[in-house]
Amino acid sequence: MLRFITAGESHGPSLTTIIEGLPAGLPINVEKINHELTKRQEGYGRGNRMKIESDTVEITSGVRYGKTLGSPLTLIVANRDNKNWKSVMSIESNDDPKSRQRRAVQRPRPGHADLVGGIKYHHEDLRNVLERSSARETAMRVAIGSVAKQLLNVLDIDIVAYVCELGGIQGQADISKLSLTDIRKLADKSPVKMVDSSQEEAVIQKIDQTKRDGNTLGGVVEVIAEGLPIGLGSYTQFDKKLDGRLAQAMMSINAFKGVEIGDGFEIARRFGSEVMDEIAYTPERGFYRLSNHLGGLEGGMTNGMPVVIRGVKKPIPTLYKPLQSVDIYTKENYEANIERSDTTAVPAASVVAQAVIATELTQAILEKFPHDSFIELKEAVNSYREYSKNPEMWQNGVDSHG
After folding, report:
1. Phi, psi (5° rounding) for residue 234?
2. Residue 227's domain is classified under what CATH number?
3. Feature table: binding site
């Protein structure tokens, strides 16, 4: 079972994670992790902090000579901006109450965790909330996802993400006619991570105008994964259904407020005969579908078609023309606090979305094929793929798990 925990504050010394459950012998490339971290910091509309941070990962356990050991993997990403916040984020006690009060955040921002977190955890200084609830934590989620992607890739599973809508402007490209390699190349080349270059200029202009207005923009990102074995997840219990788990993973990203799989909400407007994916079979391909309206998932399990999932990211709540708030001490109306922020982080969110979906898919792989070594895992996955293509094998009860 793949497990992980993240730790660290936005302006603390570092972000840390411990990952447990990876098989031994999985090749790990640090530069691939750093590449994903760099992509998270890119995208038109990001703020000044991206000029300060240059994220790189340090692996302090669980890898030797470029391969996992089967023991817990520890990743650390330093917060370079911490040098400017050492007194504010000091670990040691500050016995000067006037100094603490002067630095305290006491005007919560609408749309953030500030007020609710302060009430829940009895924090008098709302910085104690915003430091951990910050989207800075997603840097570590991306690092974890990059490790997961490396496992998926060597199992011939590919995954890609891109922005399909930003600020109300939708891309018009027909994604079904593009390979994942093509989608990746186009999205990586785009400053807003969109596949449709004809919409880029309009999106950039809207971001510029929104910044001048002191406002922010949200959008929609899509993740596609191909090459997944049939039967990841399960119909046997509600919490084993993979579509539910993928939705939770997507919704766990900061500021995500909606999710859909396949044709999603459009399915509600159509007849059943129009949205069920008809089944076909060839010896070379095995069982497959003639369409993919359901996004590669049926009954809580992968059906062999590409998994397609979209997430909705709300506009960033921190506004340079702040909304009304209330001082938690005086109870008087004030404008909310202003923290350094972006005009939009939707392009970066596509990188995070890809990472969390890759992590959840890796978890599902390791649940179905629970092997201690990567060699055994790969053999089991390949054997199962052959088994799932040949009805005679599973009808005769042939062992498919290697």
Report:
1. -160, 150
2. 3.60.150.10
3. 40, 46, 132-134, 254-255, 299, 314-318, 340
Q: How far is 245 from 250, CA to CA, in rounded Å?
A: 9
Residue 277 — left, alpha, or beta (φ > 0 → left; ψ -120 to 50 → alpha)? Answer: beta
Which residues make up each annotated binding site for NADP(+)? 40, 46
Considering only residues 137 and 48, tell me which one the structure prediction assigns the higher pLDDT: 137
Strand partners, 335: 324
List, as own/partner pairs, every contact residues 56-62 make where C-beta atoms lie below 8 angstroms and the sequence separation is at least 24, other chains included: 57/30, 57/33, 57/143, 59/28, 59/30, 62/19, 62/22
The identity of residue 237, as a single letter, is Q
The rounded Cα 235 to chain-centroid distance in angstroms is 24
> Is the residue at 395 inside a domain?
no
94 assigned to some structural domain: no
Mean pLDDT within 29-55:
85
229: its two tokens = 């074995």
- Give CA–CA dist 244/24, Å, rounded: 29
Q: Is the pLDDT reported for residue 401 higher than 70?
A: no
pLDDT at 340 over 70: no
Domain range for 182: 3-84+105-368
Whether residue 25 is contained in a domain is answered as yes
Residue 144: what pLDDT? 99
Return the structure tokens found at 328: 């938690």
Specify if 250 maps to a domain.
yes
Instruction: Tell me how many domains the chain contains.
Output: 1
Q: Let me know: does 3 contact 134? Beta carbons within 8 Å.
A: no
Count CA atoms within 13 Å of residue 309 on its CB side. 29
Tell me the CA end-to-end span of the chain in Å, nearest whole number. 18
Q: Which parts are annotated binding residues for FMN?
A: 132-134, 254-255, 299, 314-318, 340
Alpha helices in 194-239, H assignment, sequence order: 200-212
% of the chain surpassing 90 pLDDT: 81
Three-state SS at 244: helix
Q: How many angstroms separate the Cα of 286 from the Cα of each of 113, 281, 295, 368?
A: 48, 5, 18, 20
Rounded Cα gap, residues 157 and 228, in angstroms = 6
